[in-house]
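This section describes the prediction task in plain terms. A model, or a person checking by hand, is given the sequence of a single protein chain and must write out its three-dimensional structure as a string of tokens. No templates, partner chains or ligands are provided. The sample shown here is typical of the held-out split.
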Amino acid sequence: MKSLLLFSLVLLGPGVAAQSAPNASNRNMEIQNPLTGAWKLVSLEEPGADGQVHRVDCSGMFVFTSDGNAAVQVMYRNALTGSAYTQGGYEASYGTYRINSPSTFTFHIDGALVRSLIGKDLKRTYQISGNRLTVKSTDPNERWEVVWKRY
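The expected answer:
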């Protein structure tokens, strides 16, 4: 059990510690960086072959640490689901991020299951409402929308 707890703390890193320490400094950091923390995938919608937007059956997690690191994993129920971000129905990438404005961030990919993503800067729009984070691509050719819920 101790090993599992230690592994979880190492995996999630400083973002977890920042959320659990209830002092003014950490609350200020949370205000300055609303993305910090772990987010569970609620919904993913993207255009289908028919051009209509469809909800995709998947699950996932997005983690943002207070020191600018991020990792995302999404598992599609249908392993044949394919996109520029997935392989075998799975999406996984990690790297760094920076908030560009109150509504955009850039995710720099240091490592990914789909190796063609490595080294890319993926600019995203975001909106936070309560404990929900909505993320979209800034690329007009990508019309997906992901909603995450804070753990």
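For orientation: The mean pLDDT is 83.
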